Amino acid sequence: MVTHRPSHCNKRAYACLAEHLPMLDTTRGLLxxxxxxxxxxxxxxxxxxxxxxxxxxxxxxxxxxxxxxPRAVMAHAHDVLFEERGFKGNRADYHNPRNSYLxxxxxxxxxxxxxxxxxxxxxxxxxxxPVFGINAPGxxxxxxxxxxxxxxxxxxxxxxxxxxxxxxxxxxxLAVCRKAIGDAPMPDDALSPASHQQWLLRIIQNLMxxxxxxxxxxxxxxxxxxxxxxxxxxxxx
Length: 237
Known about the structure:
Elements: H1 11-20, H2 27-38, H3 47-62, H4 70-84, E1 88-89, H5 102-108, E2 110-111, H6 113-124, E3 131-134, E4 141-144, E5 157-160, E6 166-168, H7 170-181, H8 196-214, H9 217-233
Parallel strand pairs: 1-2
Antiparallel strand pairs: 3-4, 4-5, 5-6
Helix pairs in contact: 1-2, 2-3, 2-6, 2-8, 3-4, 3-6, 8-9
């Protein structure tokens, strides 16, 4: 339930975000909440439409799977998402806010590491392979572990959807982070799993930084309202 009316944020977007926050621990809740963030500028965006597009990709992969082994699922997912659909990072226009909007990323196949990672998770997880975000500094990624039940980054395959689904070793993943953050200190938990709350907050915080860079202070204030709403519903985020 919306506890107060936003001053800057699109009211439909704000209400949609509030509607899905109670389900944020689910992948569907995270996906729909991320779409709600995009609705601040994309008034006609629809979480159900994005979810339907995700389901189509999942079904396309599922039709090809002959083995339920995680490696087989990942191989077919790679072919569909990165070789055929062409998802990869938008290096040419990295700081465009639209790279954070899932409806745009689904349509164009270009986005930020964090939005491309969410598409990967949403498409692949229904196929029986656990996927979780890796809250790496400067460059979000995903971890896939078909045998682990605790989502620990100890025996995972690290995938970088921004780099067209490239598989990375932990050392390679840290090298990607180092390139992104420069001389900033590398935290000890650089490859730790991201909670869904952290995932969503990072999407919002990315947009806050982009709008600040562009001098769009009203949009930045809108993202701050969304951030406060997430923190209100998820105080431990």
